[in-house]
UniProtKB/TrEMBL annotation:
Family annotation (InterPro entries): Oligo_trans_STT3, STT3_N
Reaction equations catalysed: a di-trans,poly-cis-dolichyl diphosphooligosaccharide + L-asparaginyl-[protein] = N(4)-(oligosaccharide-(1->4)-N-acetyl-beta-D-glucosaminyl-(1->4)-N-acetyl-beta-D-glucosaminyl)-L-asparaginyl-[protein] + a di-trans,poly-cis-dolichyl diphosphate + H(+)
Record EC number: 2.4.99.18
Renumbered residue ranges of the record's region Disordered: 389-411, 663-693
Biased composition (Low complexity): 674-683
Keyword hit for Lipid metabolism: no
Protein name: dolichyl-diphosphooligosaccharide--protein glycotransferase
TM regions (residue ranges): 36-60, 66-84, 96-121, 127-151, 163-188, 194-212, 224-248, 293-311, 318-351, 436-458
Top-rank taxon, per record: Eukaryota
Family: Belongs to the STT3 family.
Domain called Oligosaccharyl transferase STT3 N-terminal: residue spans: 23-346
Length: 693
């Protein structure tokens, strides 16, 4: 799909992709005397890192629910279409590397949370630094982890392990992130990072309260808590005042356009239409979920329920991860990529727990019918005894120091929860027939998932986007019009000729036609893109004047697949800079039409004329098969542009600007009686006139 290719780099806030991991890998391999070209490294980097992502998913899910769930989640991620779209061989995209860094950072955080190891905490900060170097989506990590820490504190699950998992990440991770050139002081100056600093203060206040509670008597503790809370409120107020002073001068209050687009789905369409115009930045439809994650969408709720049986710090993080990723994927279809690992983790947990129950039931019905009831009875009695003994232990521990009590309590929780959960599982036994049918259905569901993933990888994500295909009753049809058009430009135009088109054809025109373009996928200047949008939205004469000022020789237009569909975005982007372009002028009663009911402004704009010039000659009536309607204006002539090339299937059309001397010479023939001085003054006035006002 051409629309949306690499448009993310138009957002300066998301441009942390400056550190090219492919070049780093190339230099490392060559230093080891492994002679691989840069092209080979670029082709195979994404598949290799997708394998690493599956491994990281196994490690993360294993920390949450065990090795069985980890293996299942890793297998699901290895095939999920949403991730395959970014990790196929030849996919030169940093997001394949970034997803591995994202999952691995989460794994190290959970590992530190479960073990309390400062070694894993340091590795977690380094993994976060690697994520910052890879992708601008690192802000998801630095906001999700503070949310989980705050959730643990609010629900009374604070522990020293939580402090060790979070505090080094904020300090060391922020210092390392500030070393990345494109991030720099944004790591401490933008609103996306303020949540981590606020939670950093809160966790230190909570840690201080727990420490004071362990060394003071209850009476002194109340006085100390009052003092600590008062000082804490003063410090928080001072920090908030500083933050407010820092962001008050910004019209967006310190938030980047990307973050505001995620928090407010309507923000981009209102204020940054150039970002909203990208197809990847549109909200997804329900078929998109089924296409990208398939049956995982139905297994995720079961996985969320399994995470609460029992609930731990790791499983609560997994639940928070899936909830936030579902929201963000609903805002922007591109973020389905972030949802895919979370959906695989939850589905892996659900399938693992289901297989565990069903296989255990079959074993019980076939082999353990005489022994397991006694064992279960003994287990239940042990549970009852444990429930009775626990209060006695807790009463005795009140006489000990509070610090020892908290450590002992944490150890008891870690040891008793798995025992109780194992006993509860053994108590759940289903009939033999129901277990066999359920396993068969789960295997059938997995087979359907595999078939869908293979089909999606072969049909949707393996074909080159520049060559379009379609199937009908008479076989496969290949539309190679784009390469045909680029080849014509390369062989029939001068090297220094400039080509005007919409921005998403820029990279391809530069690479395949070797011609200079006015705007491309890396154009950060919104006014520059708005100028091209204004030219496409203007009448033919005004558009010619704009392109002439830009020294354009040829105009590239895609007819059936893209340009007419996204024309309203050209109008919106152009109107955002040049107010005389108004979207309602191109709509009939609020509807976008190209038939006989289209508005005169629409029928006379350059984009309409370039798309449908001589279009009636294709079938005699000008029927647009893509939009299933007849065009409104069928017979017209071009006065300022001339058609020089149209591809075989009429998908791409190339026009050349007529020479101004030819047009002026034609006018002088009609007005021979006028003086030479008068005509020359008019020509000079026409050249000086600004066509944009």
């Amino acid at each position: 799909m051409l629309n949306g290719v690499d448009m993310r780099i138009l957002d300066p806030d998301s441009s942390t992709e400056g550190l090219d991991s492919n070049m780093v890998i190339h230099k490392i391999l060559n230093s080891l005397n492994i002679p691989l070209s840069v092209e080979t490294v670029c082709v195979f980097t994404a598949p290799i890192f997708s394998a690493f992502a599956s491994w990281a998913t196994y490690l993360l899910t294993k920390e949450v629910k065990g090795a069985g769930a980890g293996l299942t989640a890793a297998a699901l991620l290895a095939m999920v279409p949403s991730y395959i779209s970014r990790s196929v061989a030849g996919s030169y995209d940093n997001e394949a590397v970034a997803i591995f860094a994202l999952i691995f950072t989460f794994y190290l955080y959970i590992k530190t949370l479960n073990t309390g190891s400062l070694f894993y905490a340091t590795l977690n900060a380094i993994a976060y630094f690697y994520m910052v170097c890879s992708w601008g989506g690192y802000t998801f990590i630095i906001n999700l982890i503070p949310m989980h820490v705050l959730l643990c504190i609010v629900t009374g699950r604070y522990s020293s392990r939580l402090y060790i998992a979070y505090a080094p990440l904020v300090v060391l991770g922020t210092l390392l992130a500030s070393l990345v050139p494109v991030v720099g002081f944004n790591a401490v100056m933008t609103s996306e990072h303020f949540a981590s600093f606020l939670v950093f203060i809160i966790i230190h206040v909570v840690a201080l309260v727990y420490y004071i509670k362990g060394i003071l008597t209850p009476q002194m503790f109340k006085v100390a808590v009052t003092l600590v809370v008062s000082v804490g409120l003063i410090v928080c107020a001072a920090v908030l005042a500083v933050l407010i002073a820092l962001v008050a001068s910004s019209p967006t209050k310190g938030w980047s356009g990307r973050s505001l687009s995620l928090l407010d789905p309507t923000y981009a369409s209102k204020y940054i239409p150039i970002i909203a115009s990208v197809s990847e930045h549109q909200p997804p439809t329900w078929p998109s979920y089924f296409m990208d994650i398939n049956v995982l969408a139905f297994l995720v709720p079961a996985g969320i329920i399994a995470c609460f049986l029992p609930l731990s710090d790791a499983s609560s993080f997994a639940v928070l991860y899936i909830v936030t990723s579902v929201y963000f994927s609903g805002v922007m279809v591109r973020l389905m990529l972030v949802l895919a690992p979370a959906a695989c983790i939850m589905s892996g947990i659900a399938l693992s727990e289901a297989f565990d129950v069903f296989t255990r039931s079959i074993k019980f019905q076939l082999f353990g019918a005489t022994q397991d009831p006694q064992v279960n009875a003994g287990d239940t009695s042990n549970v009852a005894q444990n429930d009775v003994v626990k209060p006695e232990k807790s009463e005795d521990s009140l006489k000990e120091r509070s610090s020892r009590k908290s450590k002992k309590k944490e150890k008891e929780n870690v040891e008793t929860v798995p025992l109780v959960s194992r006993i509860e599982k053994r108590l759940l036994v289903l009939p033999l027939e129901a277990s066999l049918i359920a396993i068969f259905l789960l295997v059938l569901l997995g087979a359907f998932y595999v078939v869908h993933c293979v089909w999606a990888a072969a049909e949707a994500y393996s074909a080159p986007s520049i060559v379009l295909t379609s199937r009908s009753h008479d076989g496969l049809h290949v539309f190679d019009d784009f390469r045909e058009a680029y080849a014509w430009l390369r062989h029939n135009t001068d090297v220094d000729d400039k080509v005007a088109s919409w921005w998403d054809y820029g990279y391809q025109t530069t690479a395949m036609a070797n011609r200079t373009v006015i705007v491309d996928n890396n154009t950060w200047n919104n006014t520059h893109i708005a100028t091209v949008g204004t030219a496409m939205s203007s009448p033919e004469k005004a558009a010619w004047e704009i392109f002439n000022l830009l020294d354009v020789k040829y105009v590239f237009s895609c007819v059936w697949s893209d340009d007419i569909n996204k024309f309203l975005w050209m109008v919106r982007i152009g109107g955002g800079v040049f107010p005389h372009i108004k979207e309602p002028d191109y709509l009939r009663d609020g509807q976008y039409r190209i038939d006989s009911q289209a508005t005169p402004t629409m029928l006379n704009c350059l984009m309409y004329k370039l798309s449908y010039y001589r279009f009636v000659e294709t079938d005699g009536r000008g029927f647009d098969r893509v939009r299933h309607t007849e065009i409104g204006k069928k017979y017209f002539k071009l006065t300022h542009f001339e058609e020089v090339f149209t591809t075989h299937h009429w998908m791409v059309r190339i026009y050349k600007l007529k020479s101004p001397r030819n047009r002026i010479r034609g006018k002088t023939k009609k007005s021979k009686t006028k003086s030479t001085s008068t005509s020359s003054s008019r020509r000079s006035g026409a050249r000086k006139k600004n066509p944009w006002h």
